[in-house]
Amino acid sequence: MNDVIGLAPWLIGFPLIGAAVLLLGGRATDRWGHWLGVLASGAAAVVGFILLFRMIGTPAEERAVDHSLGTWLSAGGLDVDLGLRLDPLSMTFVVLVTFVGTLIHIYSVAYMDHDVDRRRFFAYLNLFVAAMLTLVLADSYLLLFVGWEGVGVASYLLIGFWDTGRPTARENAVAAKKAFVMNRVGDMGLIAAMAILFATVGSVGFADVLPAAGGLSEGTATAVGLCLLLAACGKSAQFPLQAWLGDAMAGPTPVSALIHAATMVTAGVYLMVRSGPILEAAPTAQLVVVVVGAVTLLFGAVVGTAKDDIKKALAASTMSQIGYMMLAAGLGPAGYAFAIFHLLTHGFFKAGLFLGAGAVMHAMGDQTDMRRFGGLSRFLPITWITMGLGWLAILGIPPFSGYWSKDGIIEAAFIPVDGQPWRAWVFGTVAVVGAAITAFYMTRLFFMTFGGRRPRWTENQHPHEGSPLMWWPLVFLGVGSAGLGLVLGIGGTFTTWLEPVVGHAEHHEPVLPVPVIIGATLVLVLLGAALAFRMYAVQLVPEEAPRGSFLTRAARRDLYQDAANETLVVLPAHGIARLVQVGDRDVVDRGWGVLPLAVSWFGAMFRKVQTGYVRSYAAGMAGGVLVIALVAWLVVRLGAGLGGAQ
Amino acid sequence: MTTFVPPEIDWLALAPLIVVLGAGVVGILVEAFVPARARRTTQIVLALAALAGGLAFVAVLWPQIVAQPVQVVGGSVTLTPFALAAQGIVAVLAFLGVLVVADRTSTGQDAFAPTASAVPGTSYEDLARRAGLVQTEIYPLLLFATGGMMLFASTDDLVVMFIALEVLSLPLYVLCATARRRRLLSQEAAAKYFLLGAFASALFIFGVALIYGFAGTVRLLQIAQQVQGGMLPLEGMSVLLVAGVLLVTVGLLFKVGAVPFHAWTPDVYTGAPTPITGFMAACTKAAAVVALVQVLYRTSIGVQAVDPQILRQLQVVIVVVAIATMVVGAVVGSVQSDVKRLLAYSSIAHAGFLLVGIAGFNAQVQASTLFYLLAYGLSTVGAFAVVTLVRERRVASGSRSGEDNGPVADDGVVLGEATEIAQWAGLGRKAPWLTAAFGIFLLSMAGIPLTAGFVAKFGAFSGAVTGGLWWLAVLGVLASIVTVAFYLRLLVVMVFRRADDETVPEQVPDAEDLDASETAGASGGTAPAALATAQVTAAQRVVVTVARSRGPAAVAVAVCAVATVILGVFPSPVLDLVEQASKFVP
């Protein structure tokens, strides 16, 4: 491991250099800039695989390596070393980010072909990859935070990428801003967590903080855990900071695939798993994590059933799937491995689904309304098959990859924590119900797009497959969706791989026998899928959305998340802002406005004393001597003092 | 029969003083024997060499004095690290000051009258100017003043201190009267300074007499020892001591420029030649503050155990003076319309901030005071150097007689300094580097972080807090907020306001403007009113220009600016040095 560890900084270095060259090079790099972007990402992927294989070749207990890059900050009691932590957890992310990232880079070369700003797009993508790798490779919360903010910036830039010259330019910019602002709310949590850690542990490095977590008081650990959870909620679009993700689909589809499905939005899960020891010291925080995950997974699933926009449906699905991961991350060591495992498989199949959606949109002239699709399987066979693999994977049909990871989470949810069977029943049930709803909305999405007897296209559309640059990545991701779970899941390979980081989970029995859980889940999933098949493949899909029930209408409006934010946060905040503004203008400013007047007035008065006559100056001095004498006399007389140096 | 015992003199310890004062004496001889052509150069080289030499000796002495402070010449000179550091600071600031003094700028004229003894406005004066006479005696005078300041800061003997006070003051009185332009103002300033200075000296020496009456000696450390040891009973006699120390303090506060003994400051700072103002504002203040600290603290050593009441009296007086000084400096400074006067009031306000630190009466104050004096001195010398370069230039004909002695009706000639704040508008575009440097000085005076002034103020105010006077530190902060307002206003004028003459092309001012005024005159018959206006404006037409430095002043400005920033960003080396200097008592 140590002989190749020197390569690790290049993981971040290659894409960072790529971004720098593309941004600073400007228009001069327009012609070949996109290939440089692909190259930078590809080089990082090669380095990532080299490191991965070396790591596999080393004994399990030597796999975690801290690679120091020297001192970064030394300020008072705070010493932060700049360093990278390579262990099975971060390497999993490195491979996911660089491999999927490179595929998406390649896809984008074709997808963004007609965009005049393609070079800038690749610069931002490279910037994102560099920041994301910084996030996962950091060996301290502070460096993690740098990456955390970096991906936030890249996400902002890419959501709002089309902020000029399009009819939706303004909405795109607003969506970018919304994502950024909501992320900032979460970022405050991370800052607060770092502050508490520094105050209690005296360090923000993983090597110091995580072993010390057991020694924290429960109150402190809970505070840190909840602050970290807030950060994770912002980045991973978890309840209650979920509202930005749907709007973030305003970005180009490869961005949605890479950032808002496969990698960045899962950073919150990474943070939770990385901070596992802290959460384990705070059972309350853990419970909150589980609750947040459970709420979000249902929330996203319900919203997903009603969306007609293919990207928004997938975004809701992403939210819901990350809810699963969060739920698992809150279950302690039993859940960590499955959280990350699901994150990995989800990274493949969701990226595949998004790129497939991009291919469909590409074929249909940027149409995103599924009610205007239908019957596309004949025209887009490759997209159909690869998305089909993704669909089966997310449904959790064995042996596709989603089954291995999601089933693990459902089983873990059924394990009672601290001998409290109610939790197992509640969260287990939520997970199973969520799986059923997932099956419904994904089947709906799949058949509204590809199935149906009658196409519902508008105008003269001639769907066709994109260039090989677009469908080869689809094929790779489709293969991953199909086989990755089987390869890594069988015999618990992946769980063992992560064990050096997340610790060994004691085996506990779920409240129901495992075969019963698997069976019940499968039955419910098939029922959900069958229902959707009946409604959207057998029956005709209306071109205009029916009014629907109350629940459908609520789900279409994201269960009123924006209205709730508007009422509960924005309006009160505006009220406070207005109050402060009025107070600042009418009270503070007016009040301080008196000061300059007073100063000028006094100044003018004193100025008169400055007559220019020596005699008056001398008189002033004599008077001063008398005043001093008087003061000295008064001090004696009154025995007064200043409470100073005596 | 007693034989004469020659005192053991540690010549090395006296070397900084001897080099500077000796060079002053040599400078007088230079006046007598060196041919006129070479005189100015010789004097400048001699003065700079002497100050550099003095500084070098300070550096050589430093380790020795830090290890073991000494008294030399039978106790007349007391070299503590604190005093030695003050000597070093004075030498550095004087060196920079002399650089500014020596600069003739692109106008070929320095700031001094060709013959200072000529009556202003006479034909003799004009003759002297045409003959190209120069008053090179200013350099020996500067050296004497500097030597006096260095001695002033490093004695414990009040009579020696008085002599040093006169040695530093008398040359300054003369120097104040030597301005080339606005000579009446300059002479008036000198006269005022002299009269009030004499008054202050009288108070000082009266205080010394009272102290002698109390103790039979004028050496503060001896008095402190005897009072502590009970050999000098305070009962019934303490009035003598208190009155004496307070009068001495008043004499020193006059030099420091503290309210109510500040009245001379704005007038003298405005009237004196600007390079001299910079030198005086920086160096005199440094020497006087150090002397004040020594007098107050040496007194307090003696009395604090025996009669804390006296210490309390001193402290209350200093606090009252500090508050008055800050308030007057800050408040009156904010209504000034002249740059030199503004800087004068700023210097008064800084005296107040220094007194805030001193009022804390604790050992920490020595280091912070030294740092403050250095930081303040650098920005002051630099700021006044900038003032010397911002000039008025006449661009149109007109019979402009009066105080400026430039050739009459010679267009495009650079006149005296443009000291009205309004005239500084648009300077940022005319001279960006100079404006940047001036901005640094202003920010440092305002105490903005990353400049030396911030570290300095922080040190002074924390001295007060350590002494239990946190509320005084709060007052200090409030006062410095008021000063920030006027510093920033000046900056805003320089950088953001457009000059009235901005449209006038810089390179060819005379020809075009002449034409313009002539055409106005030719067409005057038809519109008499317009003619009158045109003539008035033409006669008063001056634009603000920046005289190019011939080198020395630019070097001084650059050094001050860079040092101000370095002291603000990496203050630790200098802070460590002044920390070593925290010994009043040998």
From TrEMBL, chain A:
<dbReference type="GO" id="GO:0016020">
    <property type="term" value="C:membrane"/>
</dbReference>
<dbReference type="InterPro" id="IPR001516">
    <property type="entry name" value="Proton_antipo_N"/>
</dbReference>
<dbReference type="GO" id="GO:0012505">
    <property type="term" value="C:endomembrane system"/>
</dbReference>
<dbReference type="GO" id="GO:0042773">
    <property type="term" value="P:ATP synthesis coupled electron transport"/>
</dbReference>
<feature type="transmembrane region" description="Helical">
    <location>
        <begin position="324"/>
        <end position="341"/>
    </location>
</feature>
<feature type="transmembrane region" description="Helical">
    <location>
        <begin position="185"/>
        <end position="206"/>
    </location>
</feature>
<dbReference type="InterPro" id="IPR003945">
    <property type="entry name" value="NU5C-like"/>
</dbReference>
<keyword id="KW-0472">Membrane</keyword>
<feature type="domain" description="NADH:quinone oxidoreductase/Mrp antiporter transmembrane">
    <location>
        <begin position="138"/>
        <end position="429"/>
    </location>
</feature>
<feature type="transmembrane region" description="Helical">
    <location>
        <begin position="212"/>
        <end position="234"/>
    </location>
</feature>
<feature type="transmembrane region" description="Helical">
    <location>
        <begin position="89"/>
        <end position="109"/>
    </location>
</feature>
<feature type="transmembrane region" description="Helical">
    <location>
        <begin position="121"/>
        <end position="138"/>
    </location>
</feature>
<feature type="transmembrane region" description="Helical">
    <location>
        <begin position="285"/>
        <end position="303"/>
    </location>
</feature>
<feature type="transmembrane region" description="Helical">
    <location>
        <begin position="255"/>
        <end position="273"/>
    </location>
</feature>
<dbReference type="GO" id="GO:0003954">
    <property type="term" value="F:NADH dehydrogenase activity"/>
</dbReference>
<feature type="transmembrane region" description="Helical">
    <location>
        <begin position="511"/>
        <end position="533"/>
    </location>
</feature>
<dbReference type="InterPro" id="IPR001750">
    <property type="entry name" value="ND/Mrp_TM"/>
</dbReference>
<dbReference type="GO" id="GO:0015990">
    <property type="term" value="P:electron transport coupled proton transport"/>
</dbReference>
<protein>
    <submittedName>
        <fullName>NADH-quinone oxidoreductase subunit L</fullName>
    </submittedName>
</protein>
<keyword id="KW-0812">Transmembrane</keyword>
<feature type="transmembrane region" description="Helical">
    <location>
        <begin position="36"/>
        <end position="56"/>
    </location>
</feature>
<feature type="transmembrane region" description="Helical">
    <location>
        <begin position="468"/>
        <end position="491"/>
    </location>
</feature>
UniProtKB/TrEMBL annotation, chain B:
<dbReference type="InterPro" id="IPR001750">
    <property type="entry name" value="ND/Mrp_TM"/>
</dbReference>
<dbReference type="InterPro" id="IPR010096">
    <property type="entry name" value="NADH-Q_OxRdtase_suN/2"/>
</dbReference>
<dbReference type="GO" id="GO:0048038">
    <property type="term" value="F:quinone binding"/>
</dbReference>
<keyword id="KW-1003">Cell membrane</keyword>
<feature type="transmembrane region" description="Helical">
    <location>
        <begin position="44"/>
        <end position="62"/>
    </location>
</feature>
<feature type="transmembrane region" description="Helical">
    <location>
        <begin position="317"/>
        <end position="335"/>
    </location>
</feature>
<keyword id="KW-0813">Transport</keyword>
<comment type="function">
    <text>NDH-1 shuttles electrons from NADH, via FMN and iron-sulfur (Fe-S) centers, to quinones in the respiratory chain. The immediate electron acceptor for the enzyme in this species is believed to be a menaquinone. Couples the redox reaction to proton translocation (for every two electrons transferred, four hydrogen ions are translocated across the cytoplasmic membrane), and thus conserves the redox energy in a proton gradient.</text>
</comment>
<feature type="domain" description="NADH:quinone oxidoreductase/Mrp antiporter transmembrane">
    <location>
        <begin position="156"/>
        <end position="483"/>
    </location>
</feature>
<dbReference type="GO" id="GO:0042773">
    <property type="term" value="P:ATP synthesis coupled electron transport"/>
</dbReference>
<dbReference type="GO" id="GO:0005886">
    <property type="term" value="C:plasma membrane"/>
</dbReference>
<dbReference type="GO" id="GO:0012505">
    <property type="term" value="C:endomembrane system"/>
</dbReference>
<protein>
    <recommendedName>
        <fullName>NADH-quinone oxidoreductase subunit N</fullName>
        <ecNumber>7.1.1.-</ecNumber>
    </recommendedName>
</protein>
<keyword id="KW-0472">Membrane</keyword>
<keyword id="KW-1278">Translocase</keyword>
<feature type="transmembrane region" description="Helical">
    <location>
        <begin position="342"/>
        <end position="363"/>
    </location>
</feature>
<feature type="transmembrane region" description="Helical">
    <location>
        <begin position="468"/>
        <end position="488"/>
    </location>
</feature>
<feature type="transmembrane region" description="Helical">
    <location>
        <begin position="191"/>
        <end position="215"/>
    </location>
</feature>
<feature type="transmembrane region" description="Helical">
    <location>
        <begin position="160"/>
        <end position="179"/>
    </location>
</feature>
<feature type="transmembrane region" description="Helical">
    <location>
        <begin position="551"/>
        <end position="570"/>
    </location>
</feature>
<comment type="subunit">
    <text>NDH-1 is composed of 14 different subunits. Subunits NuoA, H, J, K, L, M, N constitute the membrane sector of the complex.</text>
</comment>
<keyword id="KW-1133">Transmembrane helix</keyword>
